[in-house]
Amino acid sequence: MTNFRTVITLTLLHPTQSVPVQSWSFESESVVRIGRATDNDVIIYSAVVSRHHVELWNNPSGWEIINFGANGTYVDDRVITQVPLVDGMMIRLGSSGPKIRVRIEVADSETKRKTPFSRRLSGSLTADAAQKRESLISRRSRIEKEEAIIYTDEGLTQTDFE
Fold first, then answer.
1. CA 36, CA 151: separation in Å to the nearest integer?
2. Which of 26, 36, 73, 133 could bond 67 through an S-S bridge, CB–CB 3.0 to 4.6 Å?
3. pLDDT tens per residue, range 20-77
4. C-alpha angle with apex 64: 111 to 59, nearest 5 degrees?
5. Hey, which residues does 25 pair with through a beta bridge?
């Protein structure tokens, strides 16, 4: 039996030139957290990024993104709450904030061969995944209360992606 694992790579793009600035890859994580706070897996210093801005969840049916940010998260210039992630998707943290390109691949752990996520068969949500989703909704409510301060689009901070 072949053992498959999902690899997700997030690439922060330069704000004006859309060239890669920094990348992060995750192979075994079930949740990837993005925000300004130091307890996130991906830390992005920007005035429009909330302390705990988004979470990426690896469910049996695939990766999804959940917004917690006070300034919103955008895909195709539309604000999202929770949507499935697609290989090649571009997300923006805040209406004018940092852009992140998403790459999702499935790797055969025996041969180390990678294929695009879109070729992977989708499964249904397990009871455990459904319970995690309910917990997430509760956590989101708590974080929204903590993030009561609405940050304005003041631009980038801390060396603005040198």
1. 12
2. 73
3. 999 999 988 899 999 999 999 999 999 999 999 999 999 988 999 999 999 999 998 8
4. 60
5. 9
The H helix count followed by the E strand count for the chain is 1, 12
Cβ proximity of 50 and 67 under 8 Å: no
- Residue given tokens 């956590």 in the structure block: 139
* 160: exposed, middle or buried (Cβ count in 10 Å: 0-12, 13-18, 19+): exposed
The pTM assigned to this predicted structure is: 0.67
CB within 8 Å of 31: residues ≥ 6 apart: 55, 56, 57, 58
Token output for 64 = 């999804």
Give the whole-angstrom CA distance, residue 20 versus residue 67: 23
Token code pair at residue 56: 């990426």
Q: How far is CA 97 from CA 14, 26, 118, 133, 158, in A?
A: 11, 23, 27, 27, 14
- Tokens 């631009």: give the residue: 155
The pLDDT score that the predictor gives to residue 85 is 95
Phi/psi at 144 (5° precision):
-60, -35
Q: Dihedrals φ, ψ of 161, to 5°?
A: 65, 35
**Maximum separation of any 2 CA atoms in the chain, in Å:** 52
